[in-house]
Write a structure and sequence with these properties.
Strands 1-2-3-4-5-6-7-8 form an eight-stranded parallel beta sheet. The chain is of the alpha/beta class and 315 residues long. The longest helix is centred in the middle third of the chain and has 19 residues, at 109-127. It has a single domain, classed as TIM Barrel (Alpha-Beta Barrel), CATH 3.20.20. It is globular. The protein has helices spanning 2-7, 23-32, 42-48, 54-64, 71-86, 109-127, 143-153, 178-186, 201-211, 226-234, 243-248, 260-265, 277-280, 284-295, 299-311; strands spanning 10-16, 90-97, 130-138, 162-166, 190-195, 215-218, 238-241, 270-272. The structure holds hypoxanthine (HPA) and zinc ion (ZN).
């Protein structure tokens, strides 16, 4: 099964580039940039990756990204990810980034945008992988901040293909971001939103009906609402699911109880993704291995998942 997963051509549609920062790179960049981290070595970083829920992860994730300072840091981060997944037979990656995690630390737009762009271009040339960027808004911040961010991002409009919505979900329903999503739609961008990871099915309805998203990131809790599942299947809204993330953040009690197969059986275009690979213990193929094992997926189902990922790309 692992051989099959390795050889299949796949797309990754739900990966936060800041969540691909390897502990070793975090240490190296902290030294290079003279940033104080509350960890003395790599094993202390790894020991801190002990999450109870989404928020306990996010606290570490925002702290971890503080080591990213220069254009070269962003280049190195992006290049390391693209190398890693190209070796896993990922032919296309649609990659989230969080401007609002960088700008308040005094990092300029050009620093991260040009670092990402240079790595994506080099990887396309050297490895043949097709990398694309999706700009995410942090939902724990007010929409006014997202609107300001979006306006400034227009200078780099050609460097990203869509927008997303991430960070703390509960208490931050999608409708709070309807104006900025309308602007993104008007700018011709693709739209996605994290919904139903920890939040209720209602948030998935809002992402569809109020934001008008083309894809749902996670979507697990949509399974609790049959009418919603039928809607997602009918409108061919792809779900970008992340098994190891769900396990590590305890969004599912056990991987054997993961909602993936129920969605597939209902005719939903479900896909497998890594979310934050270094924090959750696996890149794309490790996510396929874990869910294939936990749900005893057949070869046909695994092929279907890889096919779904290519089908659900923004192009
Ligand atoms: N959910 C919400 N926000 C995030 C995640 C996630 O899984 N990863 C990085 N930011
Ligand atoms: Zn995510």
């Amino acid at each position: 099964m692992q051989q099959l997963i390795q050889t299949l051509k796949k797309a990754e549609l739900h990966i936060h580039i800041e969540g691909s920062l390897e502990p070793q790179m975090m240490m190296d960049l902290a030294v290079r940039n003279k940033i104080q981290l509350p960890y003395a070595n790599v094993s202390q970083i790894e020991q801190a990756y002990n999450f109870e829920n989404l928020q306990s992860f996010l606290d570490l994730y925002y702290r971890g990204m503080s080591v990213l300072q220069t254009e070269q840091d962003y280049y190195d981060l992006m290049m390391a990810y693209l190398r890693k997944v190209s070796a896993q037979n990922v032919v296309r990656a649609e990659i989230f980034f969080d401007p609002q995690g960088h700008l308040p630390r005094g990092i300029a737009w050009s620093t991260f945008m040009l670092g990402f762009e240079r790595a994506i271009n080099d990887a396309r040339f050297e490895l043949g992988i097709d990398g694309q960027l999706i700009l995410c808004f942090l939902r724990h911040l007010p929409e006014s901040d997202a609107l300001r961010t979006f306006e400034a991002a227009m200078e780099y409009r050609d460097l990203f293909i869509g927008v997303g919505l991430d960070s703390s979900e509960q208490g931050f329903p999608p409708h709070l971001f309807k104006n900025v999503f309308r602007e993104a739609k008007n700018a011709g961008l693709y739209l996605s939103a994290h919904a139903g990871e920890e939040g209720p099915a209602e948030y998935v309805w809002e992402a569809l009906d109020i934001l008008g998203v083309d894809r749902i990131d996670h979507g697990n809790n949509a399974i609790k609402d049959l009418e919603l599942v039928r809607r997602i299947a009918r409108d061919k809204i792809a779900l970008t699911m992340c098994p190891l993330s769900n396990q590590r953040l305890q969004s599912v009690p056990d991987l054997s109880l993961h909602q993936l197969r129920d969605f597939m059986d209902a005719g939903v275009i479900a896909t497998i993704n890594s979310d934050d690979p270094t924090y959750f213990g696996g890149y794309l193929n490790e996510n396929y291995f874990a869910i294939a094992d936990a749900l005893k997926l057949s070869e046909i189902e695994i092929r279907q998942l890889a096919e779904n990922s290519l089908l659900a790309c923004y192009k």
